[in-house]
Structure formats: structure tokens, C-alpha cells
Design goal:
The chain has about 210 residues and is mainly α. The protein has helices at about 5-20, 25-40, 50-65, 70-75, 90-95, 110-125, 140-150, 175-200. Helix 1 (about 5-20) crosses helix 2, helix 2 crosses helix 3 (about 50-65) and helix 4 packs parallel to helix 8.
Length: about 210
């Protein structure tokens, strides 16, 4: 039986599948990034070797940095919040576990602390979500990183400091844009790490 799908459609479909793995799923990837990549790299993008995927990730991050701040914020929001435990992709779940397991889960006080820190961060940086390249670190270590980013004292209290006590950074100001830039870069680092993991475990069979 013949197919009505052309080579360009196959590449587009493959890119969307790849990005669900590497960047998580979001509308802005499907509607903006994939079409821009097809223009930038051409409709015959090879997706067979690890180097092909590295090139796609690099070009994706380059294009994303050129988007409006609102689109970039939508892009990073495709990743789950640090400390979330439900509705995670397989790769996000492994990354966020930081070496913990079902037998030795993240302590509940750490999860509660991260929930509060996410609220604090999103108050200080309105419209942004905290993104970091976990790289095998524990959730407790990431909590300390977030505290340092926010300039607040180390604690395991679930409600300190009060969210309203923190001074918001003006959206689209230089500090806000710098934080957005860092987050986009870290999404790229996460994607590269995922590529290495997929290749190492023998699952780089993304092209049908």
C-alpha cells in the first residue's frame, strides 16, 4: 500500500518524536520550533547518527534564543518543576530522582521545601519556571541551589520565607532575561545528557 506522506512529513514527524524525548512535550515546540528547524536545516535533516541529533539540539537552542521572551518562557515551561513526582516522563523521573529509588525515596520534607521554593522562584521571576541541569544531583542539593539563587537562608521549613516577602524581578528586565537565557541553556544541556543516555543504553532508534 502506498503512503501519501512525503519525505518532509516523515522528517517533521521524526523531529516531533525526538523532541518529546529530549525537550518534553509542548505546543511551542510543535508549532514554532519544528517548522523553523525545517527551514533552517532543510526538510531532509538526517536523523540516523548521534552527531545528527547533536546538531539538531544545537540549532534548536540557537533558534530558541532568538524567540520573544514569552515564547522562550513557554518553551522552558514544558519541563516539570523540580520536585514534582507525578505525571513525569520516564527521563524526567530518572533525572529528578538524583540517585534515589523507590526503596529510598526523597524525604517528604525535601519535596515540601521544593514546592515552596518553586513558588518563591516564580514570585521573584514572574512568568519563569526554575530549570536546572540536575546531572545526578539529589533533590536536596537542588533545593540548596534554589535557595542560593533566591538569596535566602538554608532551611527545610515548608513555608519560609513567606513568598510575599520576596521582591519580584521585573519581567523582561536584564536580570530576568539573564535567568531566562540560563534556563534555555540548561534545557539544551539536559537534552544533550538525554542523548548520551539514550545512546549508551542502546535506545537511539528514533527514526522509523
Amino acid at each position: 500500500m502506498s503512503s501519501d506522506r512525503g519525505p518532509g512529513q516523515d522528517v517533521e514527524s521524526n523531529l516531533k518524536s525526538v523532541f518529546i524525548l529530549l525537550f518534553e512535550e509542548s505546543d511551542v515546540i510543535q508549532k514554532t520550533l519544528v517548522p523553523e528547524l525545517l527551514v533552517s536545516l532543510g526538510s531532509e535533516i538526517p536523523l540516523a547518527q548521534p552527531a545528527d541529533f547533536d546538531k539538531v539540539v544545537d540549532e534548536s537552542i540557537r533558534l530558541i534564543h532568538r524567540w520573544s521572551p514569552d515564547l522562550q518562557a513557554q518553551f522552558i515551561a514544558g519541563h516539570p518543576r523540580i520536585g514534582e513526582t507525578k505525571n513525569l516522563s520516564v527521563l524526567s523521573s530518572k533525572e529528578q530522582s538524583g540517585g534515589t529509588s523507590a526503596a529510598v525515596p526523597t524525604p517528604p520534607e525535601v519535596l515540601l521545601r521544593l514546592q515552596h521554593l518553586n513558588a518563591c522562584y516564580e514570585h521573584v521571576y514572574p512568568g519563569l519556571r526554575y530549570i536546572t541541569f540536575v546531572n545526578g544531583r539529589s533533590r536536596a542539593t537542588i533545593a540548596e541551589e534554589m535557595e542560593d539563587k533566591l538569596g535566602i537562608r538554608r532551611s527545610l521549613l515548608p513555608d519560609q520565607p513567606p513568598v510575599e516577602s520576596l521582591v519580584p524581578v521585573e519581567a523582561n528586565s536584564q536580570p530576568w532575561l539573564a535567568e531566562l537565557h540560563r534556563a534555555v541553556e540548561d534545557v539544551g544541556r539536559i537534552a544533550k545528557s538525554r542523548l548520551e543516555k539514550i545512546e549508551r543504553e542502546g535506545f537511539l532508534q528514533l527514526r522509523k
